[in-house]
Amino acid sequence: MPATWRKSTYSDKDDCVEVALAPAVVQVRDTKARSAGTLRTSTRSWEALTQRLGSPETGRTH
Q: Which residues belong to any copy of the DUF397 domain (predicted)?
């Protein structure tokens, strides 16, 4: 199943990243350079990062 990408809430008009959430992995890519590749990390690491940043990016309620 292909990833469902959405614009990150941390993006602004000029600097945009997209995030795709899955049960075991989170992918992040540059909206302007999608073919440049993706950053992949575990959902556990992503949750730790976004919690530290104070963001609801994971789509989960703590």
A: 3-51
Nearby residues of 35 by Cβ (< 8 Å), 6 or more positions away: none
User: Which string of DSSP letters, residue by residue, matches 6-18?
Assistant: EE-TT--SSS-EE
Which structure tokens are listed for 49? 């990062």
Over the stretch 13-61, which tens digit does the pLDDT of each residue have?
777 889 998 889 999 998 888 889 999 999 999 888 888 877 655 555 4
Buried-state track 28-53, b at ≥16 Cβ within 10 A, e below 16: bbbeeeeeeebeeeeeeebbeebeee
- Total-model pTM: 0.69
Are the beta carbons of 8 and 38 closer than 8 angstroms?
Answer: no
